[in-house]
Design a protein that fits this description.
The chain is built from 13 helices and 14 strands. With about 400 residues, the protein is α/β, with parallel strands linked by helices. The protein folds into two domains: about 5-10 and about 265-390, Aspartate Aminotransferase, domain 1 (Alpha-Beta Complex); about 15-260, Type I PLP-dependent aspartate aminotransferase-like (Major domain) (Aspartate Aminotransferase, domain 2). The strands form four sheets. The chain has a seven-stranded mixed sheet with strand order 2-8-7-6-5-3-4, sandwiched between helices. A three-stranded antiparallel sheet has the order 9-10-14. Strands 1-11 form a two-stranded parallel sheet. The protein is globular, with a radius of gyration of 22 Å. The chain starts with a strand and ends in an 11-residue tail after the last helix. The structure holds pyridoxal-5'-phosphate. Pyridoxal-5'-phosphate (PLP) binds near residues 72, 102, 185 and 205.
């Protein structure tokens, strides 16, 4: 059976060139980067080089990069780290309604501990409005955390405009306001420059850019003080203790350099495949809704709700035909919860449960698209043929049919 992987927002395969770069650090060059001897020095030099490569991807200084175990840890370190450090200046945080669970979860926990939280709505196009943000800022706001691009619908947020508002606030003596961006999905797909973004903290994860899982980074602007969340070692300039995962760090550096050099060609390729996929699906399958802003979104991602069917059922049917995709639904206490991101667009439960995300990668081919379109047409056809929803009373429709 043919296997077609269309779930690159969940993770990507490791690039052969990345494996080649990291391999020596799993074999001969196995030293601990903190050791004084030559094995240690070899590892230290490799970590330093990777730090420069990752910094180059986002326009930061190398010493502003802190390696972590991934995007989840970097988000935690950024949000908890700032909130704990700046508590005396205020306890109000602003975020968006569609953040990744690793941001949402930490902020929900802060709220339970007495922090005030404003969650900016995203409207039908999945994008926050800067006017809403401007209105939400208070004198006791210390953190704004808004993602650069969403992992389910791919919409790109106006982070540059948000950064300008933050700069303006500082100009009017609001000194204790920090701006964090989760750029896990955007990295390698959109150009990132932490200087023009005016952000203080920015999260990255390696496994979304063809490097292994379990390695990420947090950009912490020079002069920004955070409370470390993992302590007991001098690594990462005391901002994140623990022996560096040298091979993974090297892999991340190599992947960052490749992502930077190949960004345009990868984007052109995935966007062409994505657009072709969407055009064919629209022609062959009716009763569907595209979720998110069709222009302001990542070039490799498509999120579609298929009416009358559950996304989870569709995912399984596609999997049986060798096509791998995702839903935004999560299993909670034995029941399937609709995607909170799709619900935040104002879609009803039926559409939020029927949503599927297709995310394309640099190694997908036109044949993959042909196969996936065929498999999807078959799967939707058989599920709709037995769908009770199709014959039931339909709830109020929201969204624009495509
Ligand atoms: C937007 C976003 N933030 C954070 C993460 C978490 O990154 P990691 O898997 O490296 O912990 C992900 C992963 O899916 C993501 O898509």
């Amino acid at each position: 059976m043919r296997r077609v992987y269309l779930d690159h927002s969940a993770t990507t395969p490791v690039d052969a060139r990345v494996i080649e770069a990291m391999l020596p650090y799993l074999t001969d060059k196995f030293g601990n980067a903190s050791s004084v001897h030559m094995f240690g020095q070899e590892a230290r030099a490799a970590v330093d080089k990777a730090r420069r490569q990752v910094a180059a991807l986002i326009g930061s200084r190398a010493n502003e990069i802190v390696f972590t175990s991934g995007g989840t840890e970097a988000n935690s370190l950024a949000i908890r780290g700032i909130c704990e450090a700046a508590e005396a200046h205020g306890k109000h945080v602003i975020t968006s309604a569609i953040e990744h669970p690793s941001v949402r979860g930490v902020i929900d926990q802060l709220e339970k501990r007495g922090w005030d939280v404003t969650r900016l709505p995203v409207y039908e196009d999945g994008i926050v409005r800067v006017e809403d943000l401007r209105e939400a800022i208070r004198d006791d706001t210390i953190l704004i955390s808004v993602m650069m691009a969403n992992n389910e619908i791919g919409t790109v947020q106006p982070v540059k405009e948000i950064g300008e508002i933050v700069r303006g606030e500082r100009d009017r003596e609001h000194r204790h306001l920090w701006f964090h961006i989760d750029a896990v999905q955007a990295a390698g797909r959109l150009p990132i420059d932490v200087q023009s973004l005016n952000c203080d903290l920015l999260t990255l994860s390696a496994h979304k850019i063809y490097a292994p899982k379990g390695i990420g980074a947090l950009f912490i602007r020079r002069g920004v003080r955070i409370i470390p969340q993992q302590i007991g070692g001098h690594q990462e300039r005391e901002r994140r203790a623990g022996t560096e995962s040298v091979a993974n760090v090297v892999a991340f550096g190599a992947a960052a350099e490749l992502a930077q050099g190949e960004m345009d060609s990868r984007n052109a390729h995935t966007q062409r495949l994505r657009d072709r996929f969407e055009a064919e699906v629209k022609t062959r399958i009716g009763d569907l809704v595209l979720n998110g802003n069709p222009e302001h979104r990542l070039p490799h991602l498509s999120n579609i709700s298929f009416r009358f069917i559950e996304g989870e059922g569709l995912l399984i049917h596609l999997d049986m035909q060798g096509v791998a995709v995702s839903t935004g639904s999560a299993c909670s206490s034995g029941t399937l919860e609709p995607s909170p991101v799709v619900l935040a667009l104002g879609r009803n439960d039926e559409l939020a449960r029927g949503s599927i995300q297709f995310s394309f990668g640099k190694d997908n081919t036109d044949e993959d698209i042909d196969y996936a379109v065929l498999a999807l047409t078959k799967a939707v056809g058989s599920l709709r043929a037995i769908s009770p929803l199709k014959f039931g009373v339909r709830s109020a429709e929201s969204g624009v049919s495509t």
